[in-house]
Amino acid sequence: MAAQTAEAAQGLRERKKLETRSALRAAAVRLYLERGPADVTVHDICEAAGVSPRTFFNYFETKDDAVFDWDNRLTGQLVDLLTARPAHEAPLEALHHTLRTAIPALVADAGWRERRKLLGAHPELVRKLVHSNSHMSEALSDAVAARTGLSADALYPRLVAGAAITVLRSAIRAWDPESSTEELLAMLDSCFASVAAGLPEPPGDDPARPGG
Amino acid sequence: MAAQTAEAAQGLRERKKLETRSALRAAAVRLYLERGPADVTVHDICEAAGVSPRTFFNYFETKDDAVFDWDNRLTGQLVDLLTARPAHEAPLEALHHTLRTAIPALVADAGWRERRKLLGAHPELVRKLVHSNSHMSEALSDAVAARTGLSADALYPRLVAGAAITVLRSAIRAWDPESSTEELLAMLDSCFASVAAGLPEPPGDDPARPGG
DNA sequence: ATGCAGTGCTGCAAAAATGCACTACTGTAG
DNA sequence: CTACAGTAGTGCATTTTTGCAGCACTGCAT
Question: Which InterPro entries match (chains A, B) (predicted)?
Fold first, then answer.
């Protein structure tokens, strides 16, 4: 396996690169929180991070991508975790365990929580997040295909990966970033249970209440 | 209900607007197919459509959005169809019928087929398509919430809508645009069946065939 | 036909994003 | 120590995207 999940910077070069990326990410989140996304230019972020604007776009595709860097790092991590799950687990089950394993570290990351709050304060950003999610979905889809021995173009891997991403998104969105990790995990479990049951009518649904 | 699904242009003004939008969409798809997305500038599209570049961005958020205009029109249509489904249908079932109903008209649309081929020829575009899909997902989510009497922030509507969008995307992507409508509908049915069953191990999976 | 309100279209300036070529430094081999 | 390959960072030109303000036309009322 060539996948080096360890973040150990082996050389000066690698370390500098990680530092630059980190600096850009941190500066972006900080400035976004301070002034709001609309009042922060790429120039500002770069000045705070000490690099040129061109360099910013060497690391990130769009201005907002720096804020979503967590998701891209998470993607690689999820793929590794999923690959490491025992082969006897059904794909959906393996994905469930994978997410469950990855979430605590996320919640423990102060930067990630900051970002989560940023998304709550600026819903416009959520729309751009889809891009990162799509990347994650494709990566997981490929990993599921590898697990099941199916083609990467087959329907099943895309369905399961898509469902898992939807679950993750929905749970994080509904989760209150001030509350505990357990809350998030509970919602994740509930979502996976709902999907595994074939998404039947809403659990707490009371037929006597028309809802209008 | 104030929703006017009818596309009848009541005044000259409305008609002109639709014409401009149509012209931009058509020009974009044609030029994209002729030269490839990278070799078409907004300026080119606007020249072909006879409007200024600034006007392009009054209609579409990004250069590629003109190509995805079908999805945005489809979104409104799906919401209307879903709202019209009988109340006794379960959400997932109602979404299944909704998509089944909308698809034939799409496939019959020559422009939509062109677009579908464009996506096959230029996979980079698929990445940008997620944006439209996300819009569609949110709209359907709200419609499901209305059907079930749940809050728009509840988990269930997002899960079902997300699953439906994933199904639609997967089916269209796997579908050969040269083949028949029935092929696409069959894949759609198969996907919905898989989701309704809780996404168990791949259906046509033959344990004897390693698939490598 | 005339005047008014609403708004579609446009030009302009600034910011975001991309391709290309160049510099400077890192890591490695001699 | 020196030479070399690889590549992160940069500057520049071009394209994409957005905010703002003005012009022109439509739809409506008089």
Answer: DNA-bd_HTH_TetR-type_CS, Homeodomain-like_sf, HTH-type_TetR-like_transc_reg, HTH_TetR, MftR_C
Could you tell me how many residues make up chain B?
Answer: 212
Q: Residues 53 to 72 of A: which have CB under 8 A from any B CB?
A: none
pLDDT at A185: 98
Q: Which candidate in A135, A170, A185 is best for mutational testing of the B interface (most B CBs within 10 A)?
A: A170
- The residues close to strand D, meaning Cβ under 7 A, are A 13, 16-17, 20, 38, 51-52, 54-55, 58-59; B 11-14, 16, 40-43, 53-54, 57, 61-64
Give the Cα separation of B196 and B211 in Å (integer): 26
Q: What is the mean pLDDT of each run of 10 residues along chain B (212 residues)?
A: 46 90 96 96 97 97 95 94 97 98 96 93 92 94 96 95 98 95 98 98 56 36
Tally of CA atoms within 13 A in the half-sphere of A62 that contains its CB: 12
* CB A148 within 8 Å of CB A157: yes
Read off the pLDDT band of A212 (50, 70, 90). very low
Q: What is the DSSP string of chain B?
A: ----------SHHHHHHHHHHHHHHHHHHHHHHHH-GGG--HHHHHHHHTS-HHHHHHH-SSGGGGTTHHHHHHHHHHHHHHHHS-TTS-HHHHHHHHHHHHHHHHHH-HHHHHHHHHHHH-THHHHHHHHHHHHHHHHHHHHHHHHHT--TTSHHHHHHHHHHHHHHHHHHHHS-TTS-HHHHHHHHHHHHHHHHTT--S-TT--TT----
CA of A9 to C1' of D20 (A): 48
User: Structure tokens of B193?
Assistant: 């069946």
Phi and psi of B44, rounded to 5°? -60, -50
Task: Give the residue whose CA sits closest to D15 at C1'.
Answer: B41
Q: What is the pLDDT of residues A161-199, one digit of tens each?
A: 999 999 999 999 999 999 999 999 999 999 999 999 999
Report the distance separating Cα A76 and Cα B1, nearest Å: 47
Query: In chain A, what are the domains?
Result: 1-65 (1.10.10.60), 68-195 (1.10.357.10)
- Cβ atoms of B181 and A197 within 8 Å: the answer is no
Instruction: Report which DSSP code applies to A85.
Output: S
Helix axes A110-121, A12-35, angle to 10 degrees: 40
Cβ–Cβ below 8 Å for A198 and B202:
no
Residue A131 tokens read as 């891009």
